[in-house]
Amino acid sequence: MTANGARLLDLVCGPAGPLPETYQRYRLVAHLGSGGQADVYRAVRLCGGVSSAPLTVKVFRVDPRRPLVDELRSWDKGDAALMDLNNRGVQAICRRADGFYGPPPHRPGELPDAGDAVPYQVYDYLHGINLREYVSNRAGLAAGARRLNAVAALDTLAGVLRALHHPQEPGATPVLHMDVKPSNVMVLATGEVKLIDFTGARYWRPEEITQIAYTPESGGPEAFGGTAQVGPAYDVHGFGAVAYFLVTGEYPREPGRQSQAGEEAPPAWSVLRRHPVLEQVPALRDHLHHILADRPGDRPSTLELPAWTDRLAELVRRCGIPDSGVDWGEPETARAVGRAKPRPPVAGTETGAFQRIEKLERELVELRAALGAPDDLATPAAVANGAAVPARTRVASEHRFEALDGPTGEQQRVSAVRPGPQAAASSAAAAPVPVSPAAPPGSAPAGPAQIRGRASVPPPKHVDPTEAALDQGSGQWPGGSERPREERGMLKRGWEMSGIGAFFAFICWGIWAASARGRLAGPLLAFCLVLLVAAGVFAVSRLVGRVILVNRLGRVRRSAKGAHAITGAFLVIAGIAYLQQTPWVMQVYRWVSGT
């Protein structure tokens, strides 16, 4: 849905596969945010009319200023690193569920726009908000609110960096996240944190790091020294930026400024901020500036981060700086948490109302597919205008109003980094939406199928295998969509096999015609007839392939190699037949074979 809640987003996407439904594998139901490299959506996976639990789909945008192959290779490097980390079992990071190339998102039932495929990445959907929003919203300052434990969050982040920089698996290559910052740390309702956005992640190898993601307010200056200067200390600087933000509520470096008249030109990178609170506490200031040093060698190593965090927590508790809404006390041990009673969610991350919204979105997706209702009739805006909406759709819309108008909500912001100022990503704000008035007296009462918050799965439709093929009269693909058009250029794909067969037949015909010692008019006419028959064999092969592969099996043909292979085999057989009619060739064959 849009930020103002006026319309439920309804787009589909998927990989370019042989089955037509793969183009609509994922249905995008809400826009979460946009960054410099991608748009992020909440989505569900569709299979057999059943929608999955929420997922996060990231649709990358191709930069027209860079070669396409460089853009795709850059995405593939980050995707490979994240998939490897998931396979290693690294905890507290986003889990990659899928990755593919496909057409841009499009409306259900419509063919995607022609053009280059774009990269997609699919992750688990994390219920919560990022750390930047959590601290900026001051949610932890409310009376009685459960706060995020900053020490536990930093310890978790330090453990993630240790797993990335010092993998325990034999032969595993270290990985650099390259963009650790508050907005890439998700705060979950349980109080846990997870590191997200591995778009810029790279294996720590010189040939892998060909570009560097740099955010001025949190990035290390070594980004301006070239790829050879970037190493684990770059992520350590990002870790320090997160710690600085937890303490002060601000980023550690200035966003950048132009030199004034008479001033010395500032460095290319952003300089450290002089925070008034830290200037009053030199010990705390020096401790934070240590991990944010301009020179990578002056910072603590990855393995020293737990001890550095313990010292930071001690200084914060002792100095009594202004409260930023996080807890700097000792984190609870796993054993204590296991014995404790269930705790309320961390303030600002309550997901009960938002989970009801997500459930409603899934129900509307299923209802649209089952009822075939136009999109405009299933939107809250249409309901507000008094449009005729089926009863089940109207009940779902009322439920949506209740969820959006609840006491708590959730905002999630997902951003991608590009060189330059940090891109602002809009949060999906939940706002009340007018609903239709109550049904007039005397109208049919709602039956059991209209229970609020529950949608029945549409019963499976029986499909006769003989009717699953393309309808020749309507030209429709199974499922109601148009059959993908075959490119004319695909007929040339595989022509080498037909060409080799024709060349072999021509040589054999020449040998036979030369041995005949007569006029060439008759043999030439016979050879033309052979070529004409070969063309007929090619056409019949294509027709049979269309009936079996396209109409019956629903496959999409991308070449004519099969028909060319059959045609080439026919021409080879014709050539052998010419040789069999040449006396001296047969004599040589009998002499060689001894028959």
Automatic annotation (TrEMBL):
Residues 402-488 are annotated as: Disordered. SMART domains: S_TKc. The chain crosses the membrane at residues 495-514, 520-541, 562-580. One of its GO terms (molecular function) is protein serine/threonine kinase activity. Its EC number is 2.7.11.1. Residues 419-433 have a biased composition (Low complexity). Keywords: ATP-binding, Kinase, Membrane, Nucleotide-binding, Serine/threonine-protein kinase, Transferase, Transmembrane, Transmembrane helix. PANTHER family: MITOGEN-ACTIVATED PROTEIN KINASE KINASE KINASE 20-RELATED (PTHR43289), SERINE_THREONINE-PROTEIN KINASE NEKL-3 (PTHR43289:SF6). This is non-specific serine/threonine protein kinase. It comes from Planosporangium flavigriseum.
